Amino acid sequence: MQVPLYQAKAEFFRMLGHPVRIRVLELLQNGPVPVRELLAEIDIEPSNLSQQLAVLRRSGIVVSIRDGATVSYALAGGDVADLLRAARRILTELLAGQYELLQELRQVEPTDTPTGPLRTPSIHGD
Known about the structure:
Strand order of the largest sheet: 1-3-2
Strand content: 5-15%
Order of helices and strands: HHEHHEEH
Radius of gyration: 25 Å
Number of helices: 5
Helix content: 55-70%
Largest sheet: 3 strands, antiparallel
């Protein structure tokens, strides 16, 4: 039985839904990177990085390249880099909209209500 496209997309985004995996993909955008450099850039244990790289490799998003004793990783295709750039643009627009709203909120001064000045209720029933 074939998985519906929307479910396959959800699984894809779930696979991307880990900060270490996203960071690895960002670091690989400019070409292959040796594992030792990934470890230097990402502050995690080697075993944890290995697990995250295995998830990305099984999904087909990254490939490993062996050169003697050095293992490097690279993006399997340019589409992932495009996706990361699109995510950056979307987040930039969302945050810009939130910043504009924050600026608006800061410009509005609390004023008297239509029924009179703001009052703090008294414990005496005033």
